[in-house]
Description:
Layout: H1 11-23, E1 28-32, H2 36-47, E2 54-59, E3 70-73, H3 74-80, H4 83-96, H5 109-119, H6 132-146, H7 157-167, H8 179-196
Parallel strand pairs: 1-2
Antiparallel strand pairs: 2-3
Helix pairs in contact: 1-2, 2-3, 2-4, 4-5, 4-8, 6-8
Amino acid sequence: MEELYSTQEEADTRLLLHAIHASQNHSRVIIRYDDTDVMILLIYYCSLGQLSEEVFMHAGHSGKNVTNERYVPIHTIAEKLTEDVCSIIPAVHALSGCDTNSSLHGLGKWTVYNVITKTAKDMEGLVHYEDRDEFLVSARRFVLLLHGKNAKCQASLDDLRYHLATTTDKPANQLPPSEDAFEQHVLRAQYQVQIWNQSIYQNLKWQVL
């Protein structure tokens, strides 16, 4: 099938290309995979209407005495999330930790979910992954919000680091990253999001960020 020949190197993105192709002729698609990155991509592309009406991720495994298999209803999750949340979910996932980028110490996915469901409209710059400056500004705002309401008054992560270091007894590994370190973190996330957003293409269309 020539339409599925691809230069995509990662199984995660090649899987999306195949799922989108299968969705053209099937009202239900089941993806046998157990990976958070893939689940995020399925939610994102499902919200864009690129996948079937019903999309399930078959995750977990079955043993001799215990079965942990489950079918995650991706289409239901995408319907419950707002359009604003779905539009930034790839960038948010890459920034908060994915297969190719480090996580933020002490800030789990549940904290991330609580923040983006309330403030997604304030982080529209994460949709524009091709714009380095706009993406960085929204990414900084996102991390400041992750550190709580008191972080909102801080102009930068350096200011927040200083504030926490001088007013709390938090150890160094629990402080937010410096601005220089965070910029490199954002560039890695931005690069990954660019790849994810090309999952629908057979051949990657690179752009210098």
